[in-house]
Amino acid sequence: MAPVRLLVIGGYLSYRALFEWLRPGLFFSVMLVTPVLQMLFFAQLGRYAEVADPSYFVIGNAVVGCTVACVYGPILAMAEERATGTLPALLASPANRIIVFVGRLIPFALNGLVVSGYTLLVGSLVLDADIAAGEVAPLALTLLVAAAACSGLGLCLGAVGLLVRDVPFLANLVALLMLLVSGANVALDRLPVGLRVLGEALPLSRGIEAARRIADGEPLSAVSGLLLGEIVVGLVYFVASVGVFAWAETTARTRATLELA
């Protein structure tokens, strides 16, 4: 039971710590308002340019909306561990690093699912996106897989943030990059080869394609390969986050930079 307790309580405390320095009003406005405004902007832009149906942008931006929670959340949580002086206690504990990281991933993945689901709901109501009742459950599973994969990337970047000071810049750069190359608003086949490869190497591109195909009426079994690919990408970043954290821990101790904010 000790690993389960560490998983649940550690993840809960890491997520709850966000509210020690971020006002709940600001937190919820960022989580619920920003993705919706982003979706509405691109949907109206696409309608004006006559490049795609509003449903295309609703689904794409609903999936990519999870980056607000899944990229910014883990990065800032790891940064605050160092800034508030709790990081040395974490490193000194005998706790399994993988369990610690999984515990930090779960709350942000669930948060990302809520943000994506909310954005999709608002888009369906405001822009009249056609989503059948039978597609809700497969879409929810797709959003959860995409959010979990994105959280793996966020944890990896959070570990990198232990070695750099400008963590907000890193978070903004990655979030904007994913908005560009994930296929949320610009189809991957229209991007230059380099950006297309980058988009496929990052989370969400497969999740976005799977969500759109489900919304078009395809069964979950038809997109299982895309979801499996998204899971693999998320696992790669999660394993990398554990490795980067171990390397950052060793480097920070050597250079005496562990507690620098």
TrEMBL record:
One GO CC term on file: ATP-binding cassette (ABC) transporter complex
Domain of life of the source: Bacteria
Single GO term (MF): ABC-type transporter activity
InterPro entries in the cross-refs: ABC2_TM (IPR013525), ABC_2_transport (IPR000412), Nod_factor_ABC_transporter (IPR051784)
Membrane protein topology class: Multi-pass membrane protein
GO biological process: response to antibiotic
Protein name: ABC transporter permease
Organism field: Streptomyces tuirus
